[in-house]
Amino acid sequence: AQSVSQHNHHVILSEAASLELGCNYSYGGTVNLFWYVQYPGQHLQLLLKYFSGDPLVKGIKGFEAEFIKSKFSFNLRKPSVQWSDTAEYFCAVNANTDKLIFGTGTRLQVFP
Amino acid sequence: DVKVTQSSRYLVKRTGEKVFLECVQDMDHENMFWYRQDPGLGLRLIYFSYDVKMKEKGDIPEGYSVSREKKERFSLILESASTNQTSMYLCASRDRARDGYTFGSGTRLTVV
Questions:
Q1: Which residue of chain B is at minimal alpha-carbon distance from A31?
Q2: Measured between alpha carbons, how far apart are the two ends of chain A, in Å?
Q3: Which residues of B touch A6 (CB under 8 A)?
Q4: Mean pLDDT, residues A1-9 taken together
């Protein structure tokens, strides 16, 4: 069965610090990978997604993620975070099925 | 933009009540999903539907059922609500061609 692991449950950073959130999945075949963000009190929004091609994917709000097939990873990065990036971040995988499987989420707090 | 509308933002129900959570999408998507979101557990798939009258169990279907009589509407039913079903429920719709998922704003259900 597919599964997604997000090892960082809670990350606290100061503004301008760099961010990297880990995501690993367990599925040996072709996968589609997603990062979603949920700002406090709001619905889930897509940050970026990877289907094929360039493994470095750029998303909205300065986020990017790198797909490393050999490591089954799809880590999210941002070079300089802002207070407005405070949110919960979810990695998700779709492995040639209709189902989108989520990780447990990472809560990011950014302090000014 | 695709819109996924969940009829209630907040619900409070008593233990043993039958509860209906409604979800409507306006873009003729074939796939629709119900997730529940709990702190530290992320989003877990309850049920999904890949067409009218077609449904498939997700990872945590126990205590729930679903109904998809029309393409635009996907209902989640709690036959006899229990306190451990207190949660945030999220509906999603999927554009198969683009493999894009759109989420509703969620229904926060409290069972007392």
A1: B99
A2: 41
A3: 42
A4: 87
